User: What shape does this take?
Amino acid sequence: MEASVARHRELGLTDREHELITAGLGREPNDVELAMFSLLWSEHCAYKHSRKLLRRLPTEGPRVVMGPGENAGAVDVGGGWSVAFKVESHNHPSAVEPFQGAATGVGGIMRDIFALGARPIAVLDSLRFGELDSARSRYLFDHVVAGIGHYGNSIGVPTVGGEVHFEAPYEQNCLVNAMCVGLARTERMVRAAAAGVGNVVVLMGATTGRDGIGGASVLASAELDEGDAMRPTVQIGDPFEEKKVMECCLELLADEKLVSLQDLGAAGLTSSASEMASAGGVGIDIDVSRVPLRNPDLEPFEVMVSESQERMLAIVEPDELDAVLAVCRKWETGGTAIGEVAAGDRIRVFDGDELVGDMPVALLVDDCPLYDLEPAEPDRWIYGNGEPLAAVAPGGDPGEALLALLATPTIASKRWAFEQYDSIVGSRTVRRPEQADAAVLQAPEAETAIAVAIDGNGRRVACDPYLGTVEAVLECAQNLACAGAEPLGLTNCLNFGNPEKPAVAWQLDRSTRGLADACGELGVPVVGGNVSLYNETDRGPIYPTPVVGMVGELPSPERLPVAALREGDAIAFAGPLAPDLRGSQLAKLRAELDLGLPGFEPGEVHAAIAAVRDAVRAGLIRCAHDVSDGGLACALAECAVAGGTGIEVDLGPLLGDRGPEAWLFGEGPGGFVLGGEVAAIERLVEAGTAVAIGVASGAEITIAAGPLAIAVPLADAAGAWHSLDAAMEATPA
Amino acid sequence: MTFGVLRFPGSCDEVDALRACERVAEARIVWHADTDLDGIDAVVIPGGFSYGDYLRVGAIARFAPAMERVLEFAARGGPVLGICNGFQVLCEAGLLPGALLPNEGLRFLCRQIDVEVAAAGTAWTGACREGEALSIPVKHTTGRWFAPPELLERVEGNGQVAFRYAPGDNPNGSLNDVAGISNGRGNVVGLMPHPEHAVDPLTGSSDGLKLFESAARALAAA
Assistant: This one.
């Protein structure tokens, strides 16, 4: 008995949870069952600290085809086609082994998409590391980017966008969130529900090994230890195997040979089999002795919980089994019948003839206790501040401050990273990374185009979890508006610290409230997502980091703006932005971060988003860029550098009672830089959509803001903005 | 007129290549295990990571049944284009001289660059002007073309360099800025840049279409 108690604690179950399992089974769980419960009752699989909060999110809308609970969400894009998408984290594996952690993160999210019958057409990534002057951060950044590229490039799915932020609280616990977007014929999409008693359960793809055992419970649901002890729990990716199993599955689904399909992710066979049974209201029998093994001495419990990558579980009618296995052979990938759909409501595990596990599906999948948070608002800024940077000291030269901000790794160009990604395979990419605020993909088969963006700003969420999260959603919609796209649906990944700590619980509570309210304001449904908790070490939690991914549609991919000005363009500002230095990059560089962000009216931002979208659709705009990190001066400088032109800007018409410094470098939602032909911009100004502030001309960036004046050579701004590229290129591969 | 695009397990750009070919002719996919190229007038070996490329790029694909037919097809003078991994496969198969080594920077690089047509006399460049600059993307980790000095001299002397990276645009440290090579006869061409990803201004450029038009024009004239 003593040994058994120790065992469930080692596996991450509380004594109370162990008692509930024993009561539900009417006996002590055996080793196989305990292993399975420990995974499905983990935070990672059961969302026990977040599920109640997630109920706040709006999930319905006229275009929603699949919502939360499926492998991924999906929205109708017309013409009989749907776009499936989801973002998921692979944070702890990437902190432990960055190349494989990031690679298998990409592989995992792709499986979620093609499990629906959707062909993956794009990947985006949201990454967080410690400050780039730390050797550990450069190592993690370098290897995570290489891992993402390795997997996506090898499998032939373009990585079209993303964002990277560098902040000290991610030093020990980096974040790797990957989003995949897929395209499917709506009528051919499959759900993950097992159906048809007597149908065959087929395991496809790679063999099963000892890799990643306990990944969900031990690695993903607990705080991160520093050191290498957890390295063996990280899975190893094989994109070639995934490419084969993906093409195999898509061919089988197109030929309607599968009843249903589910990927094997966290908790491996245990979660996919039991979730398919639960969704279908049936039982499933699995015979572990039939599972093809990489390590011949695997115990039954290890087979059930292995997180070996590149595996899929399909339900197949007996008459179709031979045809299905023939397609697996054609693609030179695995295909083995390992069980069958059973009457009743139990998941039973056999080792040959011997029954080694027998549990009610509902107990395993649905009955994990959900916990209430005990939030308490912290009375102070818990993250500290760095050393103030002399170049941005109050009263200094604003030109120097602009160059320092442009050179800040979070603001600087990430060309070094995205050039390591194949962004064009598939021939859909109309806007590549950094060309515009959102990636744009054409879908000629559906006679449409979509724009995709991913955003999050942990620093601002840390300042105010509610407003910061609202801002993240609005920024994502602003990015889509710059491509003329209207949001159809949202996916999110909630990356937070330990929810059992009151301050983190407060962040999580306020942040989900903000997410719900922002989605409500925009009328955008949340169609899926992921929660990653316990992102903290003994040095404290990460910044609370809700990452939102959005998919929007646009009427035509022709004549879209870029985030670059052309010589001769008129420049205008649009939106209700009320810039403020609180929570800004400048405040960070000055070591003045503290709790609190200024409030704003989301409805006004929503209206500006619609106005900019309409202007883009009307073909009036050649350059569109939202104001985010570093404020309006940085947004203007980025458009100038990207277009290779100087600018002459006077913010005089904008200056009201907010200080000129706030107008240069302050941040907040609802600001756009627009550029275009003089006549076109004049039309926007006359319509009240925008305020004219200058022209693109010369070889200098000049921005006047009342008593303050920026004047820096374009080449200096370009050098600052490309400083991350230069620094990383100097890092040996 | 029908173009055939090979598909190995691990090919990535075969559908892009198929769509590019379809802009100038009929086109179909040829599965790597197929043993006939009946009715195929031109062959494209696309980019990707054939068989995972875990041994050495292109080293396994050259043994595919379809590749044996391609060797015969090329020997008869049939036009063959190898793009990226396809170029690597053609070098491994001995159809083209030299070898592709890891990029000088050792990292995967995806970038739109200018490529100059160095020889307009091949089956795949006939519609181009010599010296013409084409805007075409590259995306590879192993694209640094290399040949020992005497082979390099022979290749240059024979005018077998079909494409060079424009000055300043060499992305991988390739010898003499070589971006693409032809066989002596000019019917087999391999290049690292991806012309199939440059067939539509909407996605960046349509300059790459000229390669496919060249082959179609040569076949129509034959």
Notes: Chain B touches chain A at residues 9-13, 15-16, 19, 48-49, 51-54, 105-111, 137, 139, 194, 196-197, 199-200, 202-204 (CB under 8 Å).
